[in-house]
Every structure is written in C-alpha cells, then in structure tokens.
Amino acid sequence: MKGFLIILIGLVTSTMVSQETITLQECYDLATVNYPLAKQSILLEAQNQLEQEVVSAAKLPQLSFDAQATYQSDVIEVPIPNSSIEPLNKDQYRATLSVNQLIYNGGATEASLNVKSSQLKTKQKQVEVNLYQLKQHINQLYFSILLAQETDLLLQSKQTLLEVKLSEVISGIKYGVLLPASDKVLEVELIKINQQLKDVESNKATLIETLSSIIGQQLDASTTFQNTLAEIITTTELTRPELDLFQLKKDEIESNEALIAKQNSPKLLGFATGGYGNPGLNMLDNSFQTFYTVGVKLNWNVFDWNSNKKQRESLSITKDIIDTETETFKLNTNTELNQQYNDIEKIEAFVISDLEIINLRKEVLKSADSQLKNGVITSSAYITELTDLYEDENTLIKHKIQLQLAKANYNVIKGQP
Q: What GO molecular functions are on record for this protein (predicted)?
C-alpha cells in the first residue's frame, strides 16, 4: 500500500510539472498519443484481426443445411407391364446436412493472411505520416507562443523603465528643471504599453488554446514554454516516415502478387452429405429414407486466358509508379530543405546586424537620457529614442524566434525529431 501511494504521488507530481512547463518535443509526443487521428492505429489493428479470422475460417469445416419440398407434374415410371414397382410420389421431400473441408489450396490462405498483415502495416504507417505532418503546425504555434512570451517580457521591461523615468520627470518638473506637462507624454506611452500587453496576452491565450486542443494537454497562461536551442542536422539522409510508407506499399503489392500466383493452384476438398427424404438415394423405394455420400473433389483452373499473369504485370507497374513517387518526394523534400537552410542563414545574418543596431541605439538613448535630465530635449524626443530601441529589440526577438522556428522546421522536413 505504501508503495502504491508513492507511485500515485509521483504520477500526480509529474502531471503537475507537465502543466507548469512544457517543451517542443513533449508537444510532439503528446500529439502522437492524444490527437484524435492517433486512435485509428488501434482501430485498424482490431479490424485487421477480424479480417484475418475471416480468412482463417476457410481452413475450418464448412457446414450447410438444405431442405426442400416439391410437387412435380410427372415422375419416372418403370415401363414394365404388371410390375409391382410403385411409381414415385409427385410430392417429394428432402433435408440434407453437408460438410466441406478444404484439404489443399496451394497456400492461398496463408498468402491471404500475409496480404492482410501488409495492409495493416501500410494503413498504420499512413496514420503515422498524417500525425508527423502535424509537427510543422505545432512548430508554428509553439514558437508563436514563445514570441508572445518574449514580447511580453520586453514590454514589461519597457514599462518598468518608463515608470522610473516618469518619477524622475515629475521630480524635474517640481524643481523647475523640466517643462510642465513633460510627464503627460510618458503617461500616454505607459497607457499604450498596457494596451500592447493586453493584446499580446490575448493572442497568446488563443495560441495556447489551439495548441492544447492538438496535443490533448491542458495548458494555460501560467505554463512556461521552454526555448530549447535547436541545432540542424545536415549530414544524414532523409528519415521521413513517408519513405517507409512507400516501401510498405511495395511490400503490400508483393504480397498481393504472391496471392494472385496461388489463385490458379489446384484445390482439393473433402465432402460429406447426410440427409433424410422421400425418395432417398434409392429411387425405387417410394418411402422416407436416410442416406449419405462422402468423397473428395479436385478443382483446378488450368487455363485463364493469361488473366493471372496480366494481374501480376499490372501490380508490377504499380510498384514502378511508387518508385517514381518516392523519387519525386525525395526531390521535393531536398529542394524544401535547401530553401529552409537558406532562410536560416539569412535570419542568422539579420540577428548579427540587429545586435549592432541595438548597441548603437543604446548609445543614442544614453545620450537622450542625459539630455532629458538637463532639460535639453523634451519627453517626446526621449520617447522617440526609447521606442526606436525597443522596436529594434523586438525585431531581434522576432528574428531569434524565427531562427528557432526555421531550424525546427528544417529538422522536421529532414525527419530528425
């Protein structure tokens, strides 16, 4: 009992932690499990199990029951004068129970089971591909939330600085160093910042709600989204699930080819029929009788006008089509990777220039701050310089987040996450 309580407390604790902080990889993993489409994999497996049981039933004895009652206008008579053989009744009755047992069919049943297994793997891989394609959408939401998170921190920093500056300006007005109403400009800017903060918080809440619905995990404004720096991998081959799907489609075709090849194999069946009727097997006995027959039957389609061969040739062409689809996918994906890599290099250059601009802006603002304290410039001129600095810092944040998004998308396109 004590061990159970420890495990329960651990589970509760882990759930609480997952609600307070989350990573991009955790979002991927949660979407793979909780997105409605993920349920299809289990459903497909259950469906395939039933289909395999239906195919396997061909190995079991097949029972059939027939019953009939007829009246016919004429019956067979023995053309012998003064014969004691009575003619058959025109009303006749028969009930039979038949058993058919498959003895040999050239391995067609096993081939059918292999086809069902191949179909299951293909369908489940298609579900995996569809879930994988969610990752870029998750990237867009996740890094948009990060951007809102960083923008909110930047606005709060600007707000704090302006509140300090407002106190200094009010003091300057009181001692006649600054012109009256200089504080009003700062107060207006603080109101604007409050509006911006509310706008950012509203957008962030919408993004979080959308992401929560995709990953099936309750997130809110208190959740911290970790900004783990991603590094792109440029040396390995593509590892996209689509490539596995193409191969599984070819495997499925090959299993169908094997099945078709066995369809013309000889089929040997054993059968037995027991019945009760009037007349029975003895047509001269005009009474109700029991009867039975047993035997074996061979069925072999010797010539099918090359239908079987043409079906296999058609499947072979389908495999060639899949090969062209695979090559097309690789070409398009590598092209997309090159474009994404160029975007990454471009944004990295932007980040470097952003840092240079911000350093210069800080020097300008430092000078403006000194001039404002000495009454050389107005509050409006100071606000202009301060706004320019924060706009450039906001641009830097956007470029950094865009860089992380581009790297994450690159890895998704590559098939690395």
A: efflux transmembrane transporter activity; porin activity
The token duo for 83 is 């014969």
Q: Tell me the pairing of strands 224-225 and 62-71.
A: unpaired
Q: Which residues pair with 295 in a beta bridge?
A: 271
Which residue has tokens 């950012």?
200
Q: 224 phi and psi, to 5 degrees?
A: -95, 125
Phi, psi of 268 (to 5 degrees): -110, 125
Q: Which two tokens stand for residue 252?
A: 């499925």
**Which two three-digit tokens encode residue 195?**
């509006």
Strand 224-225 and strand 21-22: pairing? parallel
Torsion, Cα 277 282 287 292, to 10 degrees, reads -30
Distance between CA atoms of 238 and 333, rounded to whole angstroms? 9
Residue located via tokens 């996740």: 142
How does DSSP assign 11-73, residue by residue? HHHHHHHHHHEE-HHHHHHHHHHHSGGGGHHHHHHHHHHHHHHHHHGGGS-EEEEEEEEEE-S
Dist. CA 136–CA 143, nearest whole Å? 11
DSSP state string for 112-149: HHHHHHHHHHHHHHHHHHHHHTTHHHHHHHHHHHHHHH
Other C-beta atoms closer than 10 Å to the C-beta of 162 total 20
CA gap 59, 248 in Å, rounded:
28
Q: Go through 301-323 and write b for each residue having 16 or more CB atoms within 10 A of its CB, e for each that does not.
A: eeeeeeeeeebeeebeebeeebe
* Cα–Cα distance measured from residue 151 to residue 144, given in angstroms and rounded to the nearest whole number: 10
Q: What is the pLDDT along the chain (417 residues), one digit of tens a residue?
A: 334 333 333 433 444 444 589 999 999 999 999 999 999 999 999 999 999 999 999 899 999 999 999 998 888 776 766 666 677 788 899 999 999 999 999 899 999 999 999 999 999 999 999 999 999 999 999 999 999 999 999 999 999 998 988 888 888 887 777 777 778 888 999 999 999 999 999 999 999 999 999 999 999 988 999 987 778 877 678 999 999 999 999 999 999 999 999 988 999 999 999 999 988 888 778 889 999 999 999 999 888 888 889 999 999 999 999 999 999 999 999 999 999 999 999 999 999 999 999 999 999 999 998 998 888 888 889 899 999 999 999 999 999 999 999 999 999 999 986
Q: Measured between alpha carbons, how far is residue 235 from residues 136, 344, 416 in Å?
A: 21, 16, 11
